[in-house]
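Progress against Task 2.4 (sequence-to-structure conversion) is shown through the following example record, which the project officer requested during the mid-term review.
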Amino acid sequence: MKDIFLIISSILAFAAYVTYINAILKKKAKPHRTTRLITFIITALATVSLFAKNNQVAIWLTGIFAFNSFIIFVLSLNYGMGGWEKKDVICLIIALIGICLWKLTKNPSFALYSSIAAEFAGVVPTLIKIYKYPKTEVWTFFAITGFAALFSLLAIKNWNPTEFAYPLYSVCIDLVTVFLIIRPTLYRLTK
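Structure tokens generated for the chain above:
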């Protein structure tokens, strides 16, 4: 059953990015450039870290995220918004500190936790953007990646922090992001 969950997680992760890339090309989503650069760097770091730890589960999710994050970063250069405001530079510096800590310690577990913290710092510009301009993102992408991460959690065979940390983080941040995007609609429905 765990292998089926892993397959479902990988399919959902891939489908989420296809959905998001399609939304970007149709100009329904405007990814934040700094977030997308940081997300690419951090997901690539997380993938390398999980590979070094010989992780058999979460590596698939982060690997798909890293590959697609690169594509979305490239698309954000033409279709995105934001870039080099003060908050963006601060988040980029935090992400780079996480990368430097990984290189200095050469500890894959520490690198994973550093990458999660740095990725969160990188997501902050997008969360601010969504709060101000919720129509610049599509909730379906974040909902699908959240479900992909949930199935990745369900696929875990050995429950230890290095196995569940990244998928759990992904579920949580995706839930927050979906809420911020649909918040105006929820507000209108409660009136």
